[in-house]
Amino acid sequence: MIRKWGSTLVLSSALLLAGCGSQADGNAGDEDTVKVGVLASLTGALESYGKQTQRGFELGLEYATDGTMEVAGKKIEVVFEDTETKPEVAVQKATKLLEEDDVDFLVGSSSSGDTLAVLPLAEEYEKIMLVEPAVADSITGSEFNKYIFRTARNSSQDAVAGAAAIAGEGVKIATFAPDYSFGWDGVAAFKEAAENLGAEIVLEEFADPAATDFTSNLQKVIEADPDYLFIVWAGANSPWNQIADMKLQEKGIKISTGAPDIPALSIMEPLVGMEGFSVYYHTLPDNEINDWLVEEHKARYDGEVPDLFTPGGMTAAIAIVEALEKSEGSVDADELIGIMEGMSFETPKGTMTFRPEDHQALQPMYSITLEEQEGVPYPVPVLVEELSPEDTEPPIMNNPE
Prior knowledge:
Helices cover 34% and strands 20% of the residues. It has helices at residues 13-17, 47-64, 87-99, 112-125, 155-166, 181-196, 215-224, 240-245, 262-265, 288-300, 310-327, 333-340; strands at 33-40, 70-71, 74-82, 105-107, 128-131, 148-150, 172-178, 200-207, 228-231, 254-257, 275-278, 344-347, 350-354, 361-362, 365-371, 380-387.
């Protein structure tokens, strides 16, 4: 049973010693220690995502262990590694965690490309990997192996939530996404969900994820003359300013997307009134764990609220502790798989359940509008409807036997 502990957080010495990129301190193979390796983009274009995951994971371990950093009589140690949002680096860092640090679990990563590159290592070394926050459907689809459990939502869950906000009979929609696995899977899933609701996809436009000029891409959107432009995007080089400069909304094209993290929301003022969806915003969930997360995050980080992927990091930590409590500290992967398949657990977003067939966590999502709020210097996602785990349950795509 996961417990709530007091309001003052104190980092354990184990967590302090296991900082970003640090080496293990001689406890490899120690039967009294559980070691977790966390892969995250701590530098580069997805740096904010990685740091949100890191903060959330630290807070999650403290919450789930009542601040002891112990479970089933074992100490928990964490090693963070920076993937730099480069798949080849992610593989190097994951190999280091598995071989040199001898970790019992992997967690990560911020990028779907990084994560897909690392998945085979979890199978090779027979270690459980908690995928957070990467969303590509293929992670729990075509590239799935039995050691993978995803606390992050997948592209199809995003798609169902996004389509629920704008799709309908006869609605014309164009899509715009980065030209790699995150974008491909996101658009494919959205297209299926939107067409199931009667919408027509009139254009699928992909752009170089490292580009800074999207003029030609957006011009194609204008020429397609859709009712909506649905955008799948991640990273710092977002298209929002150019969408405003090219006056897409003044041309009758409504914009819709998943509400991003707070730094990206700060440049979305032209999209006030937008209909879309959210994975998380700190005021959307209504439960005690989220209340705790918001309060403690503010206390520790100079009044800052948890951002888009902070609760995901916390959720991955809670899932590991929950599984270890049930296994009485055993880190045997086959035993943990049996425990975690079908396991339900409480998170900042409410109850999640690992679906047995593909180990995807079923979870709530949120239909929102972006609105101005007094005293907040960016458009705020305001709840229209909470979509239940059943509402957003994605198809099973890993062809289980």
